[in-house]
């Protein structure tokens, strides 16, 4: 059986040369639906969708709050700085993992890796700030329309109950919004 290699073109936005030895440090991880990703690792998503969520307990009822979604070409890390975050696959897929300790070592040894880290962190911060402003300044219908226009892959690929949670409403409210729009 031929060994699988990372689809480096999918991750070209990282600006890492195809011949860079860093690619050899990643390990293939095939995952199934509902897989929970372990702590202290970073992942490159090659196939599948991963959801980041939190559990909010209200009156002894646990409610899942979707915080983010990762699609092919995305990177996410599961670290100790967010002990309550859960990363779960929404479907079968393929990712490439590396330990966060290995990532820290690469950042210390290689100035180019520090550039990639800064790029990744600035993108992550900008996305978080944009999401925060969208949530603060818009109605749930505005948010859904924003996703329709700017992130149609969310609407097409994410189950409605998770999409509703991401917008901050119930699935029933999301259904009403969808009916009003169509």
Question: How widely separated are the two ends?
Answer: 48 Å
Q: Oligomeric state of the chains? A: single chain
Number of strands: 7
Q: Mean pLDDT, nearest integer?
A: 88
Shape type = globular
Please provide a written account of the structure:
The protein has 182 residues and is α+β, with helices and mostly antiparallel strands. It contains six helices and seven strands, in the order E-E-E-E-E-E-E-H-H-H-H-H-H. Strand 3 and strand 4 form a beta hairpin. The longest helix has 27 residues, at 111-137. It is globular, with a radius of gyration of 18 Å.
Mind sketching the topology for me?
Blueprint: E1 27-31, E2 41-47, E3 50-58, E4 61-70, E5 75-78, E6 86-89, E7 93-99, H1 100-109, H2 111-137, H3 140-150, H4 152-157, H5 160-167, H6 171-181
Antiparallel strand pairs: 1-7, 2-5, 2-7, 3-4, 3-6
What is shown here, in short?
The chain has 182 residues and is of the alpha+beta class. 40% of the residues lie in helices and 25% in strands. It has helices at residues 100-109, 111-137, 140-150, 152-157, 160-167, 171-181; strands at 27-31, 41-47, 50-58, 61-70, 75-78, 86-89, 93-99.
Main attributes?
182 residues, alpha+beta, 4-stranded antiparallel sheet, 3-stranded antiparallel sheet, 6 helices, 7 strands, 25% strand
């Amino acid at each position: 059986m031929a060994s699988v290699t990372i689809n480096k073109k999918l991750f070209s936005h990282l600006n890492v040369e195809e011949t860079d030895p860093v690619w050899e440090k990643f390990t293939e991880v095939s995952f199934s639906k509902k897989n929970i990703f372990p702590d202290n690792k970073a992942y490159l998503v090659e196939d599948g969708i991963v959801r980041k969520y939190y559990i909010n307990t209200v009156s002894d009822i646990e409610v899942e709050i979707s915080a983010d979604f990762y699609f092919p070409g995305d990177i996410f890390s599961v670290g100790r700085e967010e002990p309550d975050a859960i990363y779960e696959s929404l479907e079968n897929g393929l990712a490439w993992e590396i330990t966060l300790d290995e990532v820290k070592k690469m950042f210390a040894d290689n100035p180019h890796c520090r550039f990639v880290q800064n790029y990744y962190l600035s993108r992550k911060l900008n996305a978080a700030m944009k999401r925060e402003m969208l949530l603060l300044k818009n109605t749930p219908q505005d948010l859904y329309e924003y996703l329709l226009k700017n992130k149609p892959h969310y609407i097409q690929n994410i189950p409605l109950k998770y999409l509703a949670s991401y917008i901050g409403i119930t699935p029933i409210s999301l259904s009403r919004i969808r009916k009003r729009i169509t």
